[in-house]
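Contributing new records

If you add data, match the layout below exactly. Sequence lines come first and carry their own label; structure lines follow with theirs. Keep one chain per record. Anything else will be rejected by the validation script.
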Amino acid sequence: MTTVYDFSARRIEGNEQSLADFRDQVLLVVNTASQCSQTPQYAGLQKLYKTYRRQGFSVLGFPCDQFNHQEPGDENEIANFCSTIYHVTFPMFAKIDVNGSRTIPLYNWLKREAGGLLGGRVKWNFTKFLIGRDGAVIARYAPTNTPEKLSDKIEAALALPATSRESND
């Protein structure tokens, strides 16, 4: 069975990172953008990270410019924006495509595992995928599901291995 740990991605600083480095953690994988109506979710994501990281939780942010050109900056600009405006300390990765022919393998897998309302497509910025400690997708959440609404789901995933899936995207 394929898990999130079978993938790697380029960090915003430029180095390739194996997602196996996050083995046994609960992960929230999110495609982000800095000029979107959902951008304030960075604050909620950071709060979740700060609250649960010592229990084995991490947010993985993947900037994406595929939705109305709402992430136009390069990696340095994105990193600066995230750290100075929202004080982001969770891992941020290089700008990616989440749909189309240039979609990174991780997102192709995420979309296969949890299709959402648009089937195999991500519909907008701040779509979230919750991954259990076993590396399997537990759930997919629409951009309108704010980080604050996910605390109980994260707590449940931290307490138990991922065995069920849900989708409300």
